[in-house]
Specification:
CATH superfamily of the largest domain: Periplasmic binding protein-like II
Distance between the termini: 67 Å
Order of helices and strands: HEHHEHEHEEEHEHEHEHEHHHHEEEHH
Low-confidence stretches: 1-25
Shape: globular
Largest sheet: 6 strands, mixed
CATH topology of the largest domain: D-Maltodextrin-Binding Protein, domain 2
Mean pLDDT: 91
Structural class: alpha/beta
Radius of gyration: 22 Å
Number of strands: 13
CATH class of the largest domain: Alpha Beta
Oligomer: single chain
Number of helices: 15
Length: 334
């Protein structure tokens, strides 16, 4: 009788150990796609989530981040590679949906364009937004966010689109070089590039002071991945949310982590993180928890309309899916 009890107890312990082991096994390893990861500020929380083990704590294994120099390329990489989760510009997502792509916006990741300043040389006569009249303002590429924001700046300054010349530079680093050589008189310099060059140039316009909240990047997935990888997608959103909270509480440690992933100096990364975690645009933070902020999304789409990237009406109810968000942030902020 005693031996039977011992065997039953042993079997129970083995079953418990087996269950615990299975529960701790991460979901199948996957990659995610993040536009401009390693370059632009939008993707910084993913570096923190990877380094601090926030994804592993959610029992998923993010094996790597697919990145590219633009939202369109990131989206194509995501669609071609069967990637469950991607972070891209909302204008690119909506344009793809209008062309037939079966995509859903599932999280709202960057709620403002607070990473942007428009800077000049220290001796420039341009002092305020009103002085942009007659200037040459750099932007990266046609139909880009930087082109739309340049046009919006002129509007906010009470100027007409023809009051300044918009000059394509091809990239933000190239824009800084164009400012040095005089090809442009005003250049958009986003974080973390601004943290690197802020002692060399003078900011004329700081986005968070002038522009309204504008959604900069969103999380997306495809219909197939939504059905097949729902648990993985939810875990990515939770892990990123933890990273954003960590960055607000520990900006310098977060900066050191980001410096490694972005291959920049720690003081530069720390400055960028401190700037963006303390930033508020009309009370809205830069990095969001994932909760959808509809007004900011609509405002950014109107900016995309200004440069011809978006045409026609947008059915937001049809393209937004909040089922992957934690329950406490599932309600859409109007």
């Amino acid at each position: 009788m005693l031996s039977c009890k011992i065997r039953r107890r042993a079997n129970g312990l083995l079953a418990a150990v087996a269950f615990t082991a299975l529960a701790s096994v991460p979901v199948r390893a996957e990659q995610i796609a993040v536009g401009n990861f390693g370059v632009s500020a939008n993707g910084m929380p993913f570096a923190v989530a990877l380094d601090k083990g926030f994804f592993k704590a959610e029992k998923i294994d993010v094996t790597g981040i697919i990145t590219s120099a633009g939202g369109g390329t990131s989206l194509r990489n995501m669609l071609a590679g069967g990637v469950p989760y991607g972070e891209v510009n909302p204008g690119v997502v909506i344009a793809a949906i209008q062309q037939g792509a079966d995509l859903k916006i599932i999280s709202d990741n960057v709620l403002t364009v607070a990473e942007f300043v428009w800077a000049v040389k220290p001796d420039s006569p341009i002092k305020t937004i009103k002085d942009l009249k007659g200037s040459k303002i750099g932007y990266t590429n046609p139909r880009s966010t930087s082109q739309g924001l340049a046009m919006l700046l002129l509007k906010e300054g009470g100027l007409q689109p023809t009051d300044a010349e918009l000059v394509r530079t091809g990239g933000f680093g190239e824009g800084v070089a164009a400012l040095d050589t005089g090809l442009v008189t005003v250049a958009p310099i986003p974080e973390p590039l601004w943290a690197k060059f802020k002692d060399k140039y003078r900011a004329v316009v700081v986005a968070s002071d002038i522009l309204p909240p504008l959604d900069n990047v969103v999380g997306v997935t495809t219909a197939n991945m939504a059905a097949e990888k729902a648990d993985f997608i939810r875990a990515v959103i939770r892990g990123r949310r933890k990273a954003v909270e960590f960055m607000h509480q520990n900006p310098d440690e977060a900066g050191d982590i980001i410096a490694k992933h972005y291959n920049i100096e720690s003081p530069v990364a720390r400055s960028a993180v401190r700037n963006l975690t303390s930033s508020r645009t009309a009370g809205i933070p830069y990095w969001g928890s994932g909760q959808i902020h509809l007004a900011g999304l609509k405002a950014m789409i109107e900016v995309q309309r200004m440069v011809g990237a978006i045409q026609g009406e947008v059915n937001y109810d049809a393209i937004i899916d909040t089922q992957f968000l934690p329950e406490d942030i599932r309600a859409v902020v109007k």
